[in-house]
């Protein structure tokens, strides 16, 4: 139950997301260098990175949940439930990869959204490897943006990958992107947003449709940032309105609650990662120039204790 947004500024954009999940997992930042074995494809062949990448992962393991590369291409994964999303067999003429590893491959092998789209017909996702054995293949869809401010959503459908131009600059979870846009147009007059009574009629629920509409409205109605720093600040303000407190949404099957574990935001111009935990209001940042050993995978960990500073 995550929400992603994009905010433009004059010569770039920022992409932010809330990470909402129920299973007790640790998260941290990782740096992936060039020529790094990011994963194996489903034929058993190693795949290597072309470009340096920063992002967040679970349990210090390589599959990224969101990230940015050295050229400013940014991407996030979100849960996307459905039926027959992936094929059950590989295709020898294509690059076969798990949904689990696709974000890593995209961020470490493409410079831009345009490059990603051009190569999309060559990508094949499968829930089984070339031996017919089941592999980890989470139900994901993806949002990408780059320094040109172009934004797309990629969704699996009946064994194929489909992309949508995303001028709405928002992604949540199921249903399909087209359904979100249709519902958005039913609720809002997109040409006259200022006439909408947001204080009374803006959806307040945490379901994906309500969050899509709310995130879109808050993003489009926010004042235009004058700099990357302002855009980052605004993204945290908006995503703060989308966060889920611990204990609010209980899972009926497991003794856990779904809540926001972290908020992060990436800057396309400055190639910057920023992140804060749900328990610590401090926003941490990391850029590629901060990496001392650029040829080695590295891990960075947030201080999740509540931190305050005295006024001076």
Describe this structure in words.
There is one protein chain. The chain is α+β, with helices and mostly antiparallel strands. The chain has one domain: Penicillin V Acylase, Chain A. 19% of the residues lie in helices and 32% in strands. It is built from 6 helices and 19 strands. The strands form 4 sheets. The chain has an 8-stranded antiparallel beta sheet with strand order 13-12-11-8-7-6-3-19, covered by helices on one side. Strands 1, 2, 14, 15, 16, 17 and 18 form a 7-stranded antiparallel beta sheet that branches. Strands 4-5 form a two-stranded antiparallel sheet. Strand 17 and strand 18 form a beta hairpin. The N and C termini lie far apart (40 Å). The model has no long low-confidence stretch (mean pLDDT 94).
Topology:
Elements: E1 3-9, E2 12-21, E3 27-32, E4 37-40, E5 46-48, E6 53-58, E7 64-69, E8 74-79, E9 95-97, H1 99-109, H2 113-119, E10 123-125, E11 140-145, E12 151-157, E13 160-165, E14 170-171, H3 177-187, H4 198-201, H5 208-221, H6 228-240, E15 249-250, E16 257-267, E17 272-277, E18 284-287, E19 298-300
Parallel strand pairs: 9-10
Antiparallel strand pairs: 1-2, 1-14, 2-16, 3-6, 3-19, 4-5, 6-7, 7-8, 8-11, 11-12, 12-13, 15-16, 16-17, 17-18
